[in-house]
From TrEMBL:
<dbReference type="InterPro" id="IPR050789">
    <property type="entry name" value="Diverse_Enzym_Activities"/>
</dbReference>
<dbReference type="InterPro" id="IPR001466">
    <property type="entry name" value="Beta-lactam-related"/>
</dbReference>
<dbReference type="Pfam" id="PF00144">
    <property type="entry name" value="Beta-lactamase"/>
</dbReference>
<dbReference type="InterPro" id="IPR012338">
    <property type="entry name" value="Beta-lactam/transpept-like"/>
</dbReference>
<protein>
    <submittedName>
        <fullName>Uncharacterized protein</fullName>
    </submittedName>
</protein>
Length: 482
């Protein structure tokens, strides 16, 4: 990204924030035990702090999970402004040819606004039904799913509703949402090299699947804070933004929960005012209009509420206290810089070597096909002084995949994933004399992959698992023999 496409930078003091407050926030986040990967804090339209916990950084692309929903909402806003649809349009009016044989009163009354507000009348999330069902046409599958309640009466988080918004836009425009937003949103904001997953029908997955950088997340939040204006141009209508970020349906009554402040059009309302685009495991854009601030985050957390609580406890009072420049504080700014440079996530570490590793090094282990499932057919390890090379291969393919594993440190890798090359890091450690554990991080995601490999004579027993996967079905256990 060129400097002309970046958000402008400033010292925290120039924007009315003490560097000591940001340092305190970083320490507070770490005390929660939650794993944040990167952040960018924007005040008065300028980045005042940014950082990443190595091996992650804010300039890395990130799979946004459900932050994608808010981009889909923006796309609907553009289409509404262009007169292509209204939020009062019925969902069935766009797909009469895909309607089920029996059309219930609830289905016939479902409108675009109900998709936007997660108030479709379904009593459960339709996403698993779309992703795992036999019907490859997700629109037909959604319309065929029972609508048991009157739309607009109850909030049920529903990724299928978000996908229907994307499908409607593609039906109207002849473009995927990804294509539709290029000239309207991505290019004006300087958001480049975007990726967006599609369903089997080639429709951008409206509820997840967008990949952009942390700064791009911050730009999106800043656009909304600006009420749709960007560098003197009104990109997205102020009326749409006001409408989409206000609460349209209750999602709880706990005043201390950031998941109970109301839900807008694919945006969550926050405690203490403001709103956010929110994706699983801590991908987020927090917009704080009263404080004229945006906080973009990527993470792999199990308790995002604990992360948000520290924002409200540590950062928010400082933002409320001053909107004018503060005196320069070189000592506090140096302390913040030191803290930012030290941020890191250490790999699991037990022992770097085993007295038995030479017995296993270089051996090729072939999967026992009886009762074994794995992503590959053959695996081998080369145990070296400062790294381990794990290589796997397939019987029906000539290609192999090797992963370099640091010992006690992360080792960078370029991995093939289908038709893509992704950046990853890996580290290995001996859990005991016969069990070697590989930790693999695909840096574009929150995923944390673990390969636990136990050697037993001429056999290797491997167990694979993936943490921080929205649909945790990627796991296997297999036996291999040399």
């Amino acid at each position: 990204m060129s400097e002309s496409q970046q958000l402008p930078r400033s010292t925290p003091e120039e924007q009315g924030v003490s560097p000591a407050v940001i340092t305190a926030l970083l320490h507070a986040w770490e005390r929660t035990g939650q794993e944040i990967h990167s952040f960018i804090l924007v005040r008065h339209g300028k980045v005042i702090a940014e950082g990443g916990w190595k091996p992650y950084s804010p300039d890395l692309p990130r799979f946004l999970n459900s932050v994608t929903k808010s981009f889909t909402s923006a796309a609907v806003g553009f289409a509404v402004s262009e007169g292509r649809l209204s939020v009062e349009d019925t969902v069935l009016s766009f797909f009469p040819e895909k309607a089920p044989a029996y059309i219930s009163e609830h289905l016939s009354s479902m409108r675009v606004k109900h998709l936007l507000a997660m108030a479709t009348g379904h009593t459960e999330d339709t996403t698993p039904h779309l992703r795992r069902g036999e019907e490859r046409d997700w629109v037909r599958a959604f319309l065929g799913f029972p609508v048991n309640e009157e739309p607009g009466t109850r909030f049920i988080y529903n990724g299928g509703a978000s996908h229907m918004l994307s499908a409607i836009l593609q039906k109207l425009t002849g473009e995927t949402v990804h294509q539709y937003l290029q000239q309207r949103l991505f290019e004006p904001l300087g958001i480049e090299d975007t990726k967006w997953d599609t369903c089997p029908s080639g429709i951008s997955t409206g509820g997840w699947g967008l990949t952009i950088t942390t700064e791009d997340i911050a730009k999106f939040g800043q656009l909304y804070l600006n009420k749709g204006e960007w560098e003197g141009r009104q990109l997205l209508s102020e009326e749409w933004i006001t409408e989409s970020v206000q609460s349209h349906i209750s999602n709880g009554d706990d005043p201390n929960s950031d998941w109970g402040q109301g839900y807008g059009y694919q945006f969550w309302r926050n405690q203490h005012g403001g709103y956010r685009a929110d994706g699983a495991f801590g991908q987020a854009a927090l917009v704080m209009p009263e404080q004229d601030a945006v906080l973009a985050l990527t993470a792999a957390v199990t308790d995002f509420g604990a992360v948000l609580d520290q924002v409200w406890r540590v950062l928010l009072p400082a933002l409320d206290a001053s909107r004018s420049p503060l005196p320069s504080d070189d000592a506090a700014r140096e302390e913040l810089a030191d803290k930012l440079s030290s941020l890191s996530i250490e790999p699991p570490r037990h022992e770097d070597h085993s007295i038995k590793e030479d017995d296993y090094s270089g051996k090729r282990f072939v999967r026992n096909e009886q009762g074994s499932v794995a992503d590959f057919d053959c695996i081998s390890f080369d145990f070296e002084d400062e790294q381990v090379v794990m290589t796997w291969s397939w019987k029906d393919k000539k290609e192999t995949q090797s992963i370099l594993c640091g010992l006690g440190v992360w080792q960078e890798n370029q991995l093939r994933q289908e038709d893509d090359i992704v950046r990853a890091v890996a580290s290995g450690t001996w859990q005991d004399e016969t069990t070697f554990v590989v930790s693999l991080r695909i840096l574009e995601t929150a995923y944390q992959d673990t390969y636990q490999c136990r050697f037993e004579g001429n056999q290797l027993h491997a167990v694979y698992s993936r943490a921080f996967n929205v649909y945790p079905d990627k796991a296997w256990a297999a036996s291999f023999e040399s």
